[in-house]
Each structure stands twice: as structure tokens, then as C-alpha cells.
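so my prof wants the structure for this chain in the C-alpha cells format not the other one, which i didnt know existed until like an hour ago. anyway here's the sequence
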Amino acid sequence: MADDIVFLSEGTVTSPRGFLAGAIRAGIRPDVDKLDVGMLYAEAPCAAAAVYTSNRVKAAPLLVSQKHLAEGSSQAVIANSGCANAATGEQGLQDAREMAELAAVKLGLAAHDVIMASTGVIGTFLPMQRVRQAVSDLKLTVEGGVDFARAIMTTDTRPKYCAARFGYGGHQYNIGGVAKGAGMIHPDMATMLCFLTSDAPVAPAYLAVCLREAVDASFNMIDVDSDTSTNDTVVALANGLGGGEPIDVDHPAAGAFHSALTAVCIHLAKAIVGDAEGASKFIECRVEGAASQADARKAAREVVRSLAVKTAVYGQDPNWGRILAAVGNSGCQMEETKTALWLSDQCLYRQGQPQPFDTAATKLHLGQAEVCIRVDLGLGDASAIAWGADITEEYVRLNSAYTT
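here's what i got, hopefully its the right format
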């Protein structure tokens, strides 16, 4: 039986054995004095899996990385902020390939062992001379995980990182991660950028299954502004340095690994929403009693993505009809007479009828930093949770002048 999952204090992507990271300021955005090129390296070859954006416009580094990950293995990541290297044609593809080659030469790897990722403004080219110098000067250490998290930030106000540990059969395994994202967040099969590491000996096929399911329960259940990105990528690397037999679907530790990976992804996903551009409120929507998990997820996601709900939460307006309308618009199986909804512990609607509630108490709840919405569809046993943020004037200000 596996030990309980424990989150590590100050844990990050280098908490698992055999991972090093670092970052440097290349000056990709000369007006910003920040780390903007980062590198993650595994001291042993890794099983690797990734999930990507469903946006039909896909950035050059994503396209190249898809080819490099085709065999389910990798050993390093190079990432930059300040330039998405998206919608950049053949030059963008050449630049992405060169980034992989620069990292490979530095680390003594083959270029196909390197994953690339970029984030920033779409339609701009990487200043490759600056990137070349930065890669040459970059140092990798076991303490470099937080700097790596900082190097992928764009409008983020803080780095996002965590790590968790679980045990099985005398082995202690670690899973670490970093993520970035604050705007253009309504993932579909991934998030902005996320890199996950583990020293567990996970079989590549099982790693891919676990990652997909963890992403569906975490990054695919968050919303800031209903936008997906051209660069959305989640990558997981497992080097096996924790020892033991390969963990596959039939291994006794399979469930513990799956749970720990999901827990790390949920922590990072919630951190993205907590840092949403211009937001003043964190919204959690729990949907219960759904006929299927797919229905529960549809309904929860639609509530947290609804602009009508977001603005009501921002204005502390207990306009529960907007929540009910969002659920009805989600495409889930629903019957009004079986549906109930709550804000905090106040039931506002049940069995097709509005319920009397304490308006002042409900407004007080909507004024809190975290707002909890619960919906019971009354049709089954499936449930899901989604997380979102309100929309404020500050969000409009930030995004109306993003490139100027």
C-alpha cells in the first residue's frame, strides 16, 4: 500500500532526484530586467509525455517539440519568455530547432532529446544572437528550479512551483512542477506552460495516460478569460532514479503515482487562477449529481468561464440566474426541477423554484477573496470542480495595452 502524498516545503521542479535547472536574462525584451531563458536538465534519460493546445495556430517550438517527443523520451527543456515564436513561419521553425541544438551542445545531448517552449507576444521573432549568448552563459544547479519558474513568466506576478512526495515498497518518489499563466487561460488539452518532473520509474505509456487524466482534472478545469494560447504545453519527465520496477497500469504504486501527479497539477492550476490578470476574486464551482463526469465538467467549466458570472462576482451581485443560465448553456444533461444551487451555504434555487435567502450574507460572501458556488444537478453521482477568476477593469487595462 502506498504512503500518503505529502507536499514539500519550497518544492519545485528540481526536487526529484537527478534534475538541475537554471535561468538567465537574455534581453529578449530589452525593456524588461528579468530572467527570460531557462533550462531544465535530467541527469538520466527520461520517459516523457506531453499535452498540447488544441488551437489550430500552433507555435514553432510546440511543433518541433511534438516531433522530438514522438518516441516518448527526452532529457532536457529549454524555454523562453518575451516572445512566443508563433505565427513566425519558416524562420520561427529554424529558430526553434536552433534553440534545441544550442541546449543539446551545452548538455552533451542529441537535439531530439531537447524540448522547446516559448511564451510571449505572437508574431515576433526571437533575437537569436542574444539567445545564443544566454545559453552559453547559463548555469544549471539543483537550486535552480525557482529561477526556471521565473524565466517563463510573462504577465505573472509571481512564480508558480510545487513538489509532492509519496512512498511505496521502501521507495520514496517525488513529483515536482512549475507553471506559468495569468491571461489567455481557458485550456483545452493543456495550459499556458507547465513542466513536471519525477524520479519515479514510470513506463512511458502509463506516464502519458496519467498526464492526460491529470490535465483533464486540473488545467482543463480553469478559466481566466475564455482564451486558449498558441503555445499551451504541459510536459512530464520521469527519470526513474528513485529506483524500483517500472510503474505501469498494473503496478501496485500506479494509483499513488496517478494521484500525486494529479495533486501537483491541481495545485499549479489553482496557482494560475490565483494570479489571474487583474483579478480580485478566486471562484470555485463544484458540480454534483451529474449523469456523467463529462457533464459535471462541462457545467463547472461553463460557470467559471461565463462573463456574466464573472462580472456578477466582481460586483458582489447575488444574481444567481446567471449561474443557472451558464449551467443550462453548458451542454450538460440537466432538468430544472431537479437542479439546486448554492453560494457558500445559502441555497438560492431548488426544484425549479427560487429560494428565500439572506441577501446581505450572500453579498458578504461575494466580497470575499474566494467565492464558492455549488450546483447539484440531481441526475446521478458524477462530480467535478472548476476554478476561475472574476473580470475587472484592471484586466481590460492590462490587455488593451499588452504590446505597447
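also thought this was worth mentioning. The chain has eleven helices and 16 strands.
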